[in-house]
Amino acid sequence: MSIMSVPKAPRIWQLAERRYRLIGTQCLKCGRVFIGPRKICPQCGSRELRDIELPKRGKIYSYTVVRNPPVEREKQGPYIIAIVELENGCKLTTEIVDCSPEEIDIGTVVEAVFRKIGEEDKTGVIYYGCKFRPVK
Amino acid sequence: MNFGERIPAIYGWGSYIPIYRIKLDDIAKAWGEDPVVVKKGLEVEEISVRGPDEDQVTIAINAAWNALKRAPEVNPKDIGAIYVGSESKPYAVKPTATIVAAAIGASVTIRAADYEFACKAGTEALISVIAQVASGMIKYGLAIGADTSQSWPGDVLEYTASAGGSAFIIGPKSTSSVAYFEAQYSVATDTPDFWRRDEIKYPRHMGRFTGEPAYFKHITLAAKELMEREGFKPSDFDYFIPHQPNGTFPIRVALKLGFKIEQVKPGLLSPLVGNFYSGSSLTGLSRVLDIAKPGQRILLVSYGSGAGADAFSIVTQEAIEEKKRLAPTVDYYVNRKKYIDYATYLRFSNKIYGL
Predict the structure, then answer these.
(1) How would you class B91 by CB atoms within 10 Å of its CB: exposed for 0-12, middle for 13-18, buried for 19 or more?
(2) Considering CB atoms only, which of B52, B55, B61 is closest to A76?
(3) Pairing, β B111-115 against β B46-49
(4) Residues B87, B124, B158, B182: which is the catalytic one?
(5) Is A114 close to B91, i.e. CB distance below 8 A?
(6) A110 min Cα distance to partner chain B (Å)
(7) B332 shares a domain with B229
(8) Which domain holds residue B57?
């Protein structure tokens, strides 16, 4: 699951708590943990899964700098999009905030922070969720 | 005041201040003012500024997460009420408190609402929570004061209006609580010193009228009411934390009431980061809890334009020492900063029309 995508209100509302608190899914049979909601474990095929809160710390696995933002983020660039490897090994795509690209590198330790993800428009629903910032 | 058998107490406290700062020199330069005169009058050096993806909701939730870190014995599912005070809600209609509830994993069987009373909305939220804890309506509650303070571009308020907030987990006094409330008194009058009309983006104020007949009168009345009714004198308190619209008013009101500067300075944040409006005095309290020793007494007096003041007498307990290290301190956030220029400040604060 990329937390950068900006879907419409019903979908974002269904996923809101997962985005707010970084809720993932764990297979009760093989123990594998997934970032998003799952009904069937892709590893072992089990249908016995439970929701778990994911670690709010990790390190930058890889990153890129967006210098030509999409329309909904026009005039907000440049910004950093990274794959963060959480402390339990799960990887997720997220934005790195509170720093410039020169201040981070692969391996930089980061922690979750609650931020605005986007909004439908100036009269619409505001989307929130976790982004990450370097730990200093 | 007797709270009865269930004495309300703080279990966890936490704050959040955005990383961005603008120096008053840069604001003064943009408007052709003399920065030396401006800074001398306000005793403020720089103010915190929200990032482009921050608002009152994100500040409230980051503060609440920090408060929960300091209350590991409190299961969010046991929190029975969440109240948030603010004057900069991103939604005119839709509570911030429900977003906070979801973000901390609270139960759906909960009372949640937003409070408004200018800069004392946060302490109004706190009063509601401590009253419900004292009455037995709830086991634990969460009170938050947070703002991305609003100001007209070029107005004197722009030199102090900043962003930040604090959150407090409240429950019945026990060996796990860090400080308990021993008294609370409030005053309120119809005083039009500062207001924002419906559908208007920025507040207006009465200039110097916000001083003597507003801030000083109400804080003095509330503080004296508490001290006279409870038999306290200024020397009975280790810390005095008044609302902090700038760096000069808190010192003046403290001296007027008979406090010493040393009692005010530990909780005085406005010279370093500006005025968080509803989060102002509560973040002063948070900073004092970061350094207080067990058995110390704190007098917290908020002020809200319109106008009123809430006074609280708070006594710290043994558990405060072990909980300090469980979350970032206020000074961690004060010292973690990145300077921006006035143009960037306008963009981040959504002050450029049409963006």
Answers:
(1) middle
(2) B52
(3) unpaired
(4) B87
(5) no
(6) 15
(7) no
(8) 8-177+327-348
Chain B residues closer than 8 Å to A103 by CB: none
Give me the residues paired with residue B127 across strands. none
Q: Structural domain tally of chain B? A: 2
Task: Identify residue B234 by its one-letter amino acid code.
Answer: P
Ordered alpha helix ranges (H), chain B: 24-30, 35-42, 56-69, 96-104, 121-135, 217-230, 249-257, 261-264, 270-273, 280-291, 320-323, 330-335, 342-348
Supply the DSSP symbol for A78. Answer: S
**B318 catalytic, yes or no?**
no
B119 touches chain A (CB under 8 A): no
Cβ-count burial A15-44 (b if 16+ within 10 Å, e if not): bbbbbbbbbbbbbeeeebbbbeebeebeee
Residue B87 designated active-site: yes
ipTM > 0.90 (yes/no): yes
Q: What is the CATH number of the domain that holds B275?
A: 3.40.47.10
Rounded CA-CA distance B270/B162 in Å is 9
The two tokens of residue B336 are 């973690």
* In chain A, beta strands by DSSP E: 23-27, 33-34, 49-53, 57-66, 79-86, 91-96, 109-119, 126-134
Q: Are B17 and B337 in contact (CB under 8 A)?
A: no
Rounded to the nearest 10 degrees, the angle between the axes of helix B217-230 and helix B249-257 is 40
Determine, yes or no, domain membership for B2: no
B243 is catalytic: yes
d(CA B148, CA B157): 13
Specify if B224 maps to a domain: yes
Most confident of A9-13, A76-80, B83-87: B83-87
Distance CA A116, CA B50 (A): 12
Residues with Cβ within 8 Å of A42's Cβ and at least 6 positions away in sequence, in order, are A34
Same domain, B135 and B183: no
The pLDDT tens digits of the residues spanning A43-85 come to 999 999 999 999 999 999 999 999 999 887 877 889 999 999 9
A→B interface, C-beta within 8 Å? 16-17, 20-21, 53, 75-76, 97-98, 113-117, 126, 128, 131, 136
Task: With beta carbons less than 8 A apart as the criterion, state whether B206 and B265 touch.
Answer: no
**Rounded to 10 degrees, what is the CA torsion of A72, A76, A77, A82?**
-70
> Residue B293: which residues within 8 A CB-CB, separation 6 or more?
B316, B320, B321
Q: Do B53 and A131 touch (CB under 8 A)?
A: yes
What pLDDT does B58 receive? 98
* Shortest Cα distance, chain B CAs vs residue A97, angstroms: 9
Q: What is the distance of C-alpha B212 from the center of its chain?
A: 21
**Pair of tokens at residue B186:** 């409030």
Using the predicted structure, report yes or no on whether residue A7 has a pLDDT greater than 60.
no
